[in-house]
């Protein structure tokens, strides 16, 4: 049995045993996504290249049409006590090296408020609350198939195994949330952004999975540069035994206006390696604004900016082997029309390399446009049609024989069913 399957079975067993004694059932729900895609441009980055989408063109540079079971997720919830809930999310995803894996598993303690102040504590493996799009079941988006570049990256590389505390203060139509957390097992966060760059895709990387890195000439034992870096990264891995942290401040007004700021620092020690994986020192800010503007129209904007470094100090200037700044932003508009929802989004993103560009050029600039139409076919059945256009310039493509300037066009149809 695979490690992910063993972990999931153990978790569900822990959930079921004490609950059965108290005669409290575990609520299980299945979510499936059958996907039809037609894509042109680069092959997917899952093939170990620089592609910007989950589904790309074929290996000869032509368009490719695919019909796949994109995801099957199992969601387990249980009320251990009236104020304590257990949650687990495992999934099947054919693109990952471990198709069955664990996405989230945590306990959440949230006593009923007795005043204007309330609080909740979460412990386990979970996504930090960054995404404004992935609010539906199984960390999916109700707006589109493909989330923004920001939230695609969160699904790929940003995960916390730790403890989070959140306090909420309410006064009339106003509410303020304060969140702090300490976490581990996210030390390689930054590797994909540096070596591959931003992407737009709906993959949610599991706790035991690894992701490919393109065969860059500066990576590997024969490169003379990044000798200890493998051509893959393991997002959920502890390397330096240092605790990272994040904090957030969120404001809500009558659910009509939402504003927030989030800061993340994994406190990675960039000179430590384990199993061909470096610890990356990654820090970023995330800001968002979300508002209802009438006529069932919602506007969402996010902006994320940060930096990541790894490796040893070299040269007279004492530069890290990899030192990049990164940013991404999007503006989204969505309108609900009965059982239909129309969404449009524009993304722009970039990476700035600050060291050793001749040996390892990680610069990147790009943008993307997405339009999607979702329809509810029943209480647990929906379909989303989407067109995604991604443009990017990345000089490192030249080192593996590709053109630096690339364009991806992807049409997708997602049939989503809950059981």
Spell out the blueprint of helices and strands.
Layout: H1 3-21, E1 27-40, E2 64-81, E3 84-92, E4 100-109, E5 117-126, H2 149-157, E6 160-171, E7 174-184, H3 191-195, E8 211-212, E9 232-233, E10 244-253, E11 257-265, E12 273-274, E13 277-278, E14 281-292, E15 297-314, E16 319-337, E17 340-353, E18 364-378, E19 381-393, E20 405-418
Antiparallel strand pairs: 1-2, 1-20, 2-3, 3-4, 4-5, 5-6, 6-7, 7-10, 8-9, 10-11, 11-14, 12-13, 14-15, 15-16, 16-17, 17-18, 18-19, 19-20
What's a quick, concise take on this entry?
The protein is mainly β and 419 residues long. The protein has a single domain (33-69, 114-418), classed as Porin, CATH 2.40.160.
Description:
By secondary structure, the protein is mainly beta. The chain has a single domain (33-69, 114-418), classed as Porin (Beta Barrel). It contains three helices and 20 strands. The protein has helices spanning 3-21, 149-157, 191-195; strands at residues 27-40, 64-81, 84-92, 100-109, 117-126, 160-171, 174-184, 211-212, 232-233, 244-253, 257-265, 273-274, 277-278, 281-292, 297-314, 319-337, 340-353, 364-378, 381-393, 405-418. The chain has a 16-stranded antiparallel barrel with strand order 1-2-3-4-5-6-7-10-11-14-15-16-17-18-19-20. The protein has a two-stranded antiparallel sheet with strand order 8-9. A hairpin with a 2-residue loop joins β6 and β7 (174-184). The longest helix has 19 residues, at 3-21. The protein is globular and about 60 Å long. The protein starts with a helix and ends with a strand. Mean pLDDT is 93; it is low at 1-5 and 14-21.
């Amino acid at each position: 049995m695979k490690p992910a399957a063993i972990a999931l079975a153990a978790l569900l067993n822990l959930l079921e045993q004490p609950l059965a004694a108290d005669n409290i059932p575990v609520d299980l729900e299945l979510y499936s996504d059958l996907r039809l895609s037609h894509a042109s441009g680069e092959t997917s980055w899952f093939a170990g290249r620089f592609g910007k989408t989950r589904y790309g063109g074929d290996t000869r540079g032509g368009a490719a049409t695919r019909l796949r079971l994109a995801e099957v997720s199992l969601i387990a919830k249980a009320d251990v006590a009236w104020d304590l809930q257990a949650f687990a999310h495992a999934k099947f995803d054919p693109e990952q090296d471990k198709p069955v894996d664990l996405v989230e598993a945590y306990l959440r303690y949230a006593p009923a408020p007795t005043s204007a102040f309330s609080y909740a504590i979460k412990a386990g493996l979970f996504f930090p609350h960054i995404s404004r799009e992935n609010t539906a079941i199984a960390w999916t988006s109700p707006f589109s198939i493909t989330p923004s570049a920001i939230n695609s990256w969160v699904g790929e590389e940003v995960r916390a195994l730790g403890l989070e505390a959140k306090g909420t203060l309410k006064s009339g139509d106003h509410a303020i949330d304060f969140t702090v957390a300490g976490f581990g097992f996210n030390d390689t966060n930054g590797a994909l952004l540096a070596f591959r760059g931003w992407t737009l895709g709906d993959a949610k990387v599991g706790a035991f999975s690894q992701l490919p890195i393109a065969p860059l000439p500066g990576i590997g034992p024969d490169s003379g540069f990044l000798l200890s870096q493998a051509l893959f990264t393991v997002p959920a891995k502890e390397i330096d035994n240092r605790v990272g942290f994040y904090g957030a401040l969120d404001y809500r007004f009558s659910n009509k206006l939402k504003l927030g700021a989030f800061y993340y620092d994994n406190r990675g020690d960039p000179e430590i390696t384990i199993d061909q994986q470096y610890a990356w020192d990654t820090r970023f800010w995330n800001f968002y604004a979300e508002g209802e503007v009438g006529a069932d129209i919602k506007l969402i904007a996010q902006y994320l900016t940060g930096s990541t470094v790894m490796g040893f100090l070299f040269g007279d200037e004492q530069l890290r082997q990899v030192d990049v700044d990164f940013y991404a932003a999007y503006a989204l508009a969505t309108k609900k029309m009965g059982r239909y929802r129309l969404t449009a989004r524009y993304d722009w993103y970039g990476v700035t390399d600050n060291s050793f560009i001749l040996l390892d050029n990680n610069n990147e600039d790009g943008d993307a446009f997405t339009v999607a139409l979702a329809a509810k076919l029943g209480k647990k059945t929906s379909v989303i049609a989407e067109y995604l256009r991604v443009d990017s310039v990345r000089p490192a493509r030249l080192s593996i024989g590709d053109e630096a300037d690339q364009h991806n066009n992807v049409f997708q149809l997602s049939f989503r069913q809950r059981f």
